[in-house]
Amino acid sequence: MVRCRCRMFRKSIFVSLLLLLLLPCQARVKNDRPLVWDMSQLDKMRKEGGTSKSAKKILAEADELCEQAPLAVTDKKKLTFEPDKHYFCSIGRYWWPDSLNPGKYVNRDGEVNPAIKDYDNERLSTMVSRCKTLSKAFYISGEKKYYDAFIQQLRVWFLDKETYMYPTFEYSQVVPGQNGNKGRSTGLISAYEFNTLIESIRLVNGEKKINRRTMKGMQKWFLAFAEDSESRYGKQFRDEKNNISLAFDVTMANMYLFAGKEKKAKTIVDEFASLRIERQIMEDGRQLEELKRTKAYTYSVFNLTHIVDMCYLARYWYPNYYQTHSERIDKAFQYLGQYVDNEKKFPYQQITSWDKCWKDYKKQSERIKKLFKFD
């Protein structure tokens, strides 16, 4: 009987170990190389020793940042809708006070309410931009001061008890007087900024391992943010058909992957083509939901930016992801490409600068072309 039990015990141990080996391995998510950024220019700057004009500009900007105090979400001078200063808070970008109905707000699509500067939007963007510059400067030069400034900014915004931001957008893009003065699902578009931050962390971590406490803290923060966002808005976004839904998918997949939840991230990637690309790009290349906007060309390119980002991110699992879905993606680029420097023939509204439209379109075109090389 005893011998039988021993054999059963050894067998159960063997089966348990086998199951562990068959489970998806989270350890290979190393976060030591950007997944979405094109590294060719940075690699060139680094090889040249930071002597190029572009590299010198990055290093000069980083030098100035090293002398500045880190930004914090708690830097706000007053509270408005949020219960305390650790909440990120912003107002709807295109919502304005209704002159005919005091206390009410109306949507003026494409027209930015300058009052957004009084909230956390600009502070968040500036913080992410700082981290991006510092990470690039550290990669190019290897100078420790850039690394130290980068880590300090991460800790102040995300981890330090007195200044950290709660991992939620509960008060993002509030429309005063609506929804109990809480945020809306569209407010998650601001979370797209975090993709740049995650890439910056990967870039730095590949050169000098970020200490375990800080790295684990960042992974925990982004996992909490992703789970909070999905619990609030996940069901709603599944059926959305505009650019915000694509931005949501890219951001959630990137956050989950960064946090080590590879299986969760891969599920989002696996559904992206059927849920987003095939639904949002028509056979003639038009993106109907974006063409309804007052900045139809801007938002069409913006939507393609998210698709290109996903094509790069998806290479983590599928090296030929772009080629697999290139037919519909290429049609979207071709449709917009016919109006480059030919805006008078564009049959939809575009109330802001065409020059920026061309610049953004050409940038994404170059990014997608480079995927042919990778594939």
What do these coordinates show?
With about 375 residues, this protein is mainly alpha-helical. It has 2 domains: about 210 residues, Chondroitin AC/alginate lyase (Glycosyltransferase, Alpha/alpha barrel), CATH 1.50.10.100; about 120 residues, no CATH class. The chain is built from 14 helices and 4 strands. Helix 5 packs across helix 7. The N terminus is likely disordered.
Q: Spell out the helices and strands N to C.
A: HHHEEEHHEHHHHHHHHH
CATH fold group of the largest domain: Glycosyltransferase
The CATH superfamily of the largest domain bears the name Chondroitin AC/alginate lyase
User: First CA to last CA: what distance?
Assistant: 60 Å
Strand order of the largest sheet: 1-4
Count up the helices: 14
Please summarize the sheet with the most strands: 2 strands, parallel
Instruction: Give start-end ranges of low-pLDDT stretches.
Output: 1-27
Question: Would you report the number of β strands?
Answer: 4
Classify the secondary structure makeup into a structural class.
mainly alpha
Features:
mainly alpha; disordered N terminus; 14 helices; globular; single chain; two-stranded parallel sheet; 375 residues; two-stranded antiparallel sheet; 2 domains; Glycosyltransferase; 58% helix
Topology:
Layout: H1 2-22, H2 40-47, H3 53-66, E1 89-91, E2 95-97, E3 105-107, H4 121-141, H5 144-159, E4 171-174, H6 193-207, H7 212-238, H8 243-258, H9 262-280, H10 288-291, H11 296-313, H12 321-324, H13 326-337, H14 354-374
Parallel strand pairs: 1-4
Antiparallel strand pairs: 2-3
